[in-house]
Amino acid sequence: MHFWIDTHCHLDAPELRADLDAVREQAREQGVAHCVLPAVDVHNLGTVRQLAHRFNDSYALGIHPLYTPAAQPADLQAVADALGQHHGDPRLLAVGEIGLDFFVPGLDATKQEHFYRAQLQLARQHQLPVILHVRRSADRLLKHLREVPVAGGIAHAFNGSLQQAHAFVDLGFKLGFGGAVTYERALQLRRLVVQLPLSALVLETDSPDIPPHWLYTTAAERADGQAQGRNTPGELPRMAAVVAQLRGMAVDELAAATCANALAALPRLAGLVASGSVA
């Protein structure tokens, strides 16, 4: 059995609520020993922390760019207060999920950048890495990172260019790959996962989002965007097998490398492993 780390999943999502204990246990049976649970807005800061402690997992605190339309200045203070209150919690690994989304129409780019930059400042203040949301926004994210440098982290669901990938790596980031790479039509993403050094890669499910191709069984389901099953952390080993096949490497080698990369990106996670606090 291989040891896997899902570096990005939303166990607090409504889609998983009915049988969450079973979902997490099934993932553990598949060898997913640890999950990182990022918050997305002020309303789930406490929830991700509680779930991380319940399942011997870990968490990040932040405001996601898709939640910035309703966000208020007081929300930044709430994140700052939570980071201060729980700074001594070894399961608090990062500030996240933060970033920029220039794909979804109607979002205020200026407001997004204000919240992103403010949260980079919080990460600096608390000496924490960040978990980044990157969607058609890599260059802008990099600009702010160069102006407000942080202690690295993970560029989640990375889908930029090879040049942009190397720019994140040069700033101390690992790049997250998951369900999207399982699609044969994702040619650029598949090239990326092969061209990048193994030391740059971490694995994630983004559960329940970004399902792998096998959760869509018919052309009709794919056309209307409805998956046959839920994307859960238990899908990670099968996603990893696709990455290993693309790279022409053994699955156990990929498991060892991506786990080591996750510990490097999120140093407090290494502390949890060393202390035996990872189940």
Structure description:
By secondary structure, this protein is α/β, with parallel strands linked by helices. It has one domain (4-274): Metal-dependent hydrolases (TIM Barrel). The protein is built from 11 helices and 8 strands. It has helices spanning 20-29, 45-54, 73-85, 109-126, 138-147, 162-170, 187-195, 219-224, 236-247, 251-265, 267-274; strands spanning 4-6, 32-38, 58-61, 92-101, 130-135, 153-156, 173-177, 201-203. An 8-stranded parallel beta sheet has the order 1-2-3-4-5-6-7-8. Strand 5, helix 5 (138-147) and strand 6 form a beta-alpha-beta unit. Helix 3 packs parallel to helix 4 (109-126) and helix 10 (251-265) crosses helix 11. The longest helix is centred in the middle third of the chain and has 18 residues, at 109-126. The two termini are 14 Å apart. 44% of the residues are buried. The model has no long low-confidence stretch (mean pLDDT 94).
CATH C-level class? Alpha Beta
**CATH superfamily assignment?**
Metal-dependent hydrolases
Form type: globular
Radius of gyration: 17 Å
What percentage of amino acids are in beta strands?
15-25%
Instruction: Return the CATH topology.
Output: TIM Barrel
Order of helices and strands, N to C? EHEHEHEHEHEHEHEHHHH
* Number of beta strands: 8
The residue fraction in helices comes out at 40-55%
Instruction: Report mean pLDDT, rounded to a whole number.
Output: 94
| Main β sheet profile | 8 strands, parallel
Low-confidence stretches: none
